[in-house]
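To: structure desk
From: M.T.
Subject: fold request, one chain
Message: Could you run this one when you get a chance? Sequence is below, nothing fancy, just the single chain.
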Amino acid sequence: MASGVLRFEVLGPLRVRRDGLEVDLGPAQQRSVLALLLARAGEPVTIAEFVDLLWGADPPSSAVNVVHRHVGAVRRLLEPALPPRSTGRVVGGAGEYRLTMAPDELDLTRFRRLVTRGRDLAAQGRLADGLALAVDALSLWRGPCAGGPAFLRRDHPPFTAVDRECAEVAREAAEAAHYTGTVHPVLATVLAIADLFPLDEALQAQTLLLLEAGGRRTEAVARYERIRARLADELGTDPDAELRQAYDEVVRRGGPAGPPAHARVAEEPATALRLAGFLRPAQLPPDLPGFTGREEQIRHMLRVLRSHRTRTAMPLLALDGLPGSGKTTCAVHLAHRLADSCPDGQLYVDLQGFHPRGRALDPLDVLGCFLGLLGVPDRAIPAALDARLRLARSHLAGRRVMIVLDNARDVDQVRHLLPGSADCLVLVTSRHRLDGLATAYGAHLVTLDVLPPDEARRFLRTRIGAAGPADDGALDEIVERCGRLPLALALVSGRALEHPDRALADLARELRAAQGTWTGSRATPPRPTCGPRSPGRTGCSASRPRVCSGCCR
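Reply: Done. Structure tokens follow.
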């Protein structure tokens, strides 16, 4: 018996059709398992994610076995003729499952293909053609992903991420429809999606303009008042500049219906469209030319973060190590390697957690800066820390943004800056090991020790290049007297480049005479020997006397 032609629908209540007839999907938990597989659109789903969806924080002891049984039931449901122990559509391994489908079998993948083609056309200036494809994509939408909380009993990140994706397309379509005058094909769907996201001010702004263009000004004014009241009650803020401007335009036009939408094209050219999405910050410092060392750790961190992107939890990695161990340089290099996986931008801040005068940045101020970079006007940024965090998380939801938090003092400084979306990626650096981030948020912790001798020598050779003659003995002495710390080696290499006529033996002799200080340079490399306190006692971060950074002086 053949399985027949299957069609899957997850952009609304969950449905599966075989040869045009709807399939009975069984009990609620089994339906939820299938819904999660479909919402991930062929990407792997871990057993832990299934458990979290079905039971939350209080799973039974039999949870894993129950998940396996439900997956087996889904496999039999979709392919009743599949022989036992055969590999079919549901592929499992290493504690995860995924559902294989052709691109045209799932409404979500068809939706994404239409949206991608439509955005490409809009970017080429073919706005009407791009809008037509967006209308086709939105016609596939029937409601919250997999039926929403009413079916799933609670919100769950993979489903809300799909809903946010649809909301972004609705905003883009509303904007394009407003400028081209093609209002009615999208109005009903945009209104329905906007009702799911009452605090998405960019979407609500376009919805107001679309209502006005469709001759429903009274409804637009009433919607604005509802949104304004809700923003005040839930976030303690006023509407942002974009939403206020849209409301002002609705009021300014006056009359029962206003001029037809196509008349606006001449007044407000399509170059003002924001069809590509929201403001994309690009704050990463420049990567170090010829980055050298840490190859194995870099590969490990890239592997960990990229594999984590298939989960529902936010990828979070925290680097710790001695002062001068190259944490910032390593994090920035890693961020540049991962930038393509975060197309919606990168946020970077030096938290100054170890400022010599104790001037660590307040998370309140950092969030204010982030919100400004995300396009929130100053007067719309709330005063309270919790309100700023909620607003930032709302703006980041469904966006693939990288956040680099450099020089964090402690876990408390970091936790107020973490997004709530699994689509974001966060890198943290600190002199302290932030075990609390691993406990509370599942962070991956990586400690940077001093460089191995061969990497330290390669680091120095790469930096100096042809500036000085080869002298392996002097090179080894410099490496050891710098404690194999990247910062100290960088300072020495800078001195060598400033004086290319001097031999490495001269630099080694200066370091030997200075015994850890270098009064002739503009900067002082970290001391290679420990101070009055012994390593391991309070105040000293060194694991061996030779690599103490001077922290215990």
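Reply (cont.): Confidence is low (pLDDT under 50) at residues 255-278, 519-553. Let me know if you need anything else for the meeting.
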